[in-house]
Structures are given as structure tokens and as C-alpha cells.
Amino acid sequence: MEMLDKTFNPELIEDKWYQYWIDKKYFVASLKKKAKPYCIVIPPPNVTGSLHMGHALNNILQDVLIRYKRMQGLNTLWMPGTDHAGIATQNVVEKQLAEEGINRKDIGRERFIERVWKWKKESGGIIINQLKGLGASCDWDRERFTMDEGLSRAVREAFVDLYKEGLIYRSNYIINWCPRCHTALSDLEVEYDEKVGKLYFLTYPVSNSKRKLIIATTRPETMLGDTGVAVNPTDRRYKDLIGQKVLLPLVNREIPIFADSFVDMEFGTGVLKVTPAHDPYDFELGLKHDLDTINVMDEDARMNESAGVYKGIERFKCREKILADLSNQGFLKKIEDYTHQVGHCYRCKTFIEPRISEQWFVKTKPLAESAILSVKNGKTKIFPAMWEKTYFEWMENIRDWCISRQIWWGHQIPAWYCRDCGEIIVEKVTPERCFKCGTSNIEQESDVLDTWFSSSLWPFSILGWPEQTEELKIFYPTQVLVTGFDILFFWVARMMMMGLKFMNKVPFHHVYIHALVRDSEGQKMSKSKSNVVDPLIVMKKYGTDAFRFTLTALAVQGRDIKLSEERIAGHRNFANKIWNASRFVLLNIGEFKTFNIEKITKDLSLRERWILSSLHRAIIEVTRDLDSYRFNDAAYHIYHFIWHEFCDWYIEFVKPTLYNKKDPFYDFAKFILTHVLETILRLLHPFMPFITEEIWQKLPKSGESITIENYPKSKPKYFDKNAEDKIEIIKQAITSIRNIRGEMNIPPGREIEIQIRCSNKETEKLFNANKSYFLKLCKACNILISTHIDRPKSAAIGIINCGDIFIPLEGIIDFKEEFRRLEKELARTTQDLNSAVKKLCNEDFLKKAPQEIISKEQKKHDELIEKKIKLESNLKKIKELDTE
Fold first, then answer.
1. How far is 385 from 265, CA to CA, in rounded Å?
2. pTM for the full predicted model
3. Which residues of 619-633 are buried (b: 16+ CB within 10 A; e: fewer)?
4. pLDDT per residue as tens digits for the range 486-499
């Protein structure tokens, strides 16, 4: 029988087994298999991306599910792919060009797109190989890209169909504009940070009056585009001014004063300057009250010709100039500090600038209705359910979706403009001439579609839509979408709308939303805080299996993950534990008899009946937890059973039998030991695929890979509560004895005498039948078990549910010497505790020290308190024993 190496080295097995699985095509879905289908579509990472903690968590959870369902015999398909990431990818290639001293406009659109495809071929998709290193069992033969030929056709099909139904339109509208990326952004692509800025109070003189209105604003440079001033109709301070006009400072343009209930009387002075071209709320007010719209900035956020003398000045420089001019002319009343939310581009972090622009939009309200209903009626369930409320709130208040972007990399909008008659032509096939006037003088729209438009079609476009492929027939709708909450609106809601629109079915039955991975102190990971844990580094350091198990074990529904290297190291120890236990089994089973396990259950010892019962109880718990997406609970039950039940107890219980061929349970023990280990490996495989495959291959078996073996099924016939209860009593007694040895500082090699006073005859019979466990596991030379035992002199006592345990200590430990040792240890501990308390009460330390250091000091403080209590308790016990 082939043996495991002495030590577990993940580097020696990971690439080997992953390549084996790929070569054997275990991850490839079947179009002929009649088994129930189970499909997951990967949230496509950006082609520019590199594996980070969010990717790692997301894909580990998907892989756990897909391996679990594959082993259950389902026809599994995990569809992989990458997103073309319009703005991000264009930025990458533009930076390359800049290093060559070239601007994309210098080489033109066609050559620029060629450069992007060249970059994609050479450098794009690095993350795909990183996902493979993670163990992701995707069907790589079906890998897709949002700009590949099939998906491009799907995008055009969807766009044209929506346009012809009136659900896509083109209009002038206020949009979020990134002056750096030179493109529109959807509301979801604008990130907001709290900033300490200024609130400027400006004076607007009322025309033909001596009165003046004081107006508060955070963006004085936009005043050049003001076309109205609004007050609340119920505000008595300004009621008599409604219908009059003010003279706009610096510009000397008269603009109307009007009333609208939108105005907040508590903000500033209760008077609102209205700039329809540069604020989304002002834009709505402008439409409502028929105000002029004056755009005073160009696409670089520099003032344009409508800004008059300020033309050509960058917006923030212009703010300084305008404030100086306002001050010189007596229009600047005062300036106050003001904290507010400031929006910036999610890609380049440039402050966004709302501006009027002609864009393409999707009418989302008609599409949202069925998407809302599908969640309400349970066709799609969201886990955890708390996210349903957020989903409904957003969908019920949804705004039209701006889908055009002013960049070159992406799906160019399939619309053509006739230069002669102005007709707009939207078709699936590129037209040769204008359908209205017949001219060939037509030009395609230069804008591309928002990346999220192609992603919204992902669950069915990657399966071949608009063609009615076998993949589409078999695997749509998909079973579950695993995603982060941050793209619930970006992506999940839009996939719901598009799936129902084009497939008339929800795109997935379940949506599992995982939380963020934070550092050990609960802080969001960021390079600026130097608290980023790189998955690639920790995978190499501790092994991929340990890393995978850590994230799974921490994935509590609705709770952010606090990750530290110590946790990963702890699960590396778990991997070592499994390895060493498996090595012990392989070293000791040799040739053994095989049995029909279902026929020998009644012939087995208490020990074997207990471990089988515990195993099948664990199988039930793990299966239940995975089916309800309680990954952390599933990991806990596996961990607890393997480490504590199998390794700590069962292997120790079975050792004497393995070393004694004359034991009547010798053959049964070797067979059950192997059976339980093999079952454990299959139970654990979705979580830790590499180590389980390596060990499983060394066991006597008939299959070719654990990844296609059957997942364990729990069978009630193996449940034996009586055996579990009896072993629990034995474990409790042994644990009590071990605790006494530790508390009394009895040397590990020193044998002791054990006396157990049982509370009933049944326990007495149980303990006497299993004396060997006490003698072996408690390092005992003698054991007396009876219902009638008096406590010996100077004996430590342990109390258990069904009796008392006595350990005579006279002659084993020197009470006075032990008392002195404990006193010294207590003095040192008290000194260290006082030092920790002093530090934690130091205000300077708490203000200046990093949170990580403070937390470590708090942990040290708590541990010292616990240690002090224990030492004081042991001192008391020693004193009592010495005076008996």
C-alpha cells in the first residue's frame, strides 16, 4: 500500500491533482446526461483583474457548492468567463500608449481597438489562472468573454428588441460625467465619500428692490449656469417674493424666483439656487418649472463659452476666481465648514460632474415590475432574507438606466444616423443605407454600451442565446447565483429584469449574498491602511486547502468576515491533523478483511457503533447546512467531527485493538477505521479538494478520483443514541481525569491511581467494561470502579454527571513545592496584569497606538485575568489537599 509522506506539503500536490482533474474532464458538463441539472454562472471578473479576497471568497463558495452537487450525481455546469470591463480596460491600454507618447485619438478608433485585443491576448485574463490555482472546478471548455462573437450578437439582439418595444430611448438628460474617463456613469458607478468642505453664502439682489437673498451652495462655480431661485411655498420669509426675479451676480442675468415644496427650509437660508445643467435635482426642477438649461462646462470640467470671462478655467480653479470676484464685489456673505457626501468615479476616483448630455437609456420601471413580483412570490429566493427589503426598496424606486458610454472599448451601440435626413436606424444587421431616404450617407453611433448591459444578459447569453442551444434548454434557469451585496443593484437586479424579459423565466432560483472580507479588527482592507491580506501569498504560505477552509468557516450569513493569518494558520494545523491521522491509518491497517457494513452493525463494539452513529449525524448536519447556504455551520460540523471525534477520540480508542491481533474486534476495527476515514474525505472534499484527493488515492478503493465519487448520504440505521450517550460518559470521565493531571501539574510520564465512585450500577458496568481506555488514555497504573468508594486522603476530586473521580496525590506531587511554584507564577501574572491595565488606562496610548496594537493588548489583558483566576483556584486546591 502506497504511503503518505511524513509531512504535508501542499505545493507537491495542488498542481498535480488540478491538472489530473482537467485532463480527465471531470468539470465538463454533459448534454446527454439525464441527471438533474445544476448550473452556476460565475460573476465574471474584470479581464484586467487580479485575485483579491472578494474574488477568493466568492469563488470558493461556488466551488464548494458545485463539487458538492457533482458528487451528489447532478449534471453540474459552472460557467466561467470574464468581463471586458470597458472603462478599466481602456484606461490600462491608454496608459500603455501614454508611455509611448501616443494618445488614442492619434491612432484612431480601429487601431486602438486592435491594441486592446492585443493586450487582452497577451495580458488579459490573468485572474482565470489564479482561479484555477484556487481549485475552481469550472467547465473551462465553455469559458466566455463579454466581447466574444456570441455574446456580442446577444447584446445587439437585446438592444434592438428593447429599442423597438420603446424600452430603449435617446434623450438629453442630466448624467454623471467623469472628466478623466470622458464618459457617462450610472448612479451605481458613482461612489460617495464623506468630505469636509465649505458652504458658501452668496448674495443675490432682488430686481427692482433693495432686498437681497442669501443663498448657500457648496459649488459656487455652477452659479454661472443658474436659471432660477427656489423657495418653499410655505416659507413665510420669502412668500412675497415668489414670481419676482433676482439679478445673478457676476453674470447680470435676471432669473425667476419660484416656489417648490422640494426646497428644504432648514438647509442654509432656505433659498435654493437652481442650475438645471449641473445638478440632477435642479434638472428635475428645471423640467417642472420650464427653466432654461445652461451648460457652463466642457467634457474636461473646464468652463466653456457659456461661462463668459471664465472660459477655459478648470472648475476648481474657477471656484477660487469666482469667490475672489464675489468677495471684491460684495456678494460673498460668509464661508462655513460643511461635511457632505462627494461623488467620484468608481474607476479613477475623479470627482464626478453632473452635466446635460444626450444619452441612451433603458426604461426600467416596466422591467422592474416582474422582477419584484418574482422575488415576492418566491420564484427567486434571496439568502440571507434581510437583503430582500433592500432589493425591493431599490427596484420600487428605480430610475431609468443610462446605458451609453463615451469610450471606444465595448459593444458599439447598433444605431446609425442618417447625415442627410436625420433618421435614426437601429437594426441587428448593419444597414447599408437609410431606410427613410435611401442614402448610404449613414454613420454608426460612436458610444458603446455600459459594461453592465452585456453582464445583465450573462445567465442566458453564455448558454448560447439568442440561439436555442441544448445548453440553454438544459441549464437555464440556473440554480444559484453567489455574489457580493455591493453588486445587488449593479448586476443582480438587472439580470432579473433581462432574464424575465427575454427568457420569460427568472435567471436563478436562489441568490446567495456573501459579506465583505475585512481584516482581523473588522476594518475594510485597503492598501493605504497596509492591512490587505493577499490570497496568492497566503495560499502559497499555508496551502490552498487551509485558505479555502478558513473563508468557508468564516462565511456566516449576513456578517462580515474578520480574517487574519492566525486563522489560516489554524486551519493549516487542521490539514496537518488530517494528514497525520490518515498516515497513522495507512501505517496500521495493512491487509484487512472487508465486510458488508450494513450486515455487521450489530456485531460491532460500542466504540464502532458510536463512531458510525456520530459520522452519520455529521453527514446529516453538513448536508443540511450546505443546502441552506450555511457554509460556516457546515465547516464547523466537519471540523468538530474530524478533529475531536475521529482524531482525538476514536483513533485513541482503537489503538489498543490495532496493536493486538487477538482482539476479537481486530478485523472489524481496521475495516471501520478505513471506512470512516474514506467517508470523512468525501465529506470534506468540496471544502479541501487537494488534500482529500491525495489521501483518498492512497486508500484501498475502486474509483479513479474522489471528485466524482458519491457524496456521503446519512442512513438512519446507523444512528445509535445509546452508544453515543455511553461513549460521551466515558469521554467526560477521561477528560475530567486529564484536567486534574493538568491542574495539579502531574508529570506526563507519571502513572496515577484512579478511583471512580459511580452513582449507579449501569455506569459501574460501563466503566468496568472499558477499563482499558482509562488505563491507556489517562496514564493510569490502577483503576478501581464501584458504587461504594470513600474519598481517599489527599485526593483530587473530579465531579461528572454519573459519579465522582478521585486521584490520590500523596507521594505523586510535593504539595509545598507545588504551592511555592504556583505562588511565584501568580506573582508574575499579577505583575503582568497590572502592567496591561496601566497601559489600557493610558489615554495617550489609546489615542496614538494603532487599533491592532490596542486589540492585542486587550486580548493579553483578558488572557492574564483568566490565568490569574485559574492559578488562584489551583492554589486553593493544593492548600486544601496539603491540610487533609
1. 38
2. 0.84
3. bbbbbebbeebbbbb
4. 777 778 999 999 99
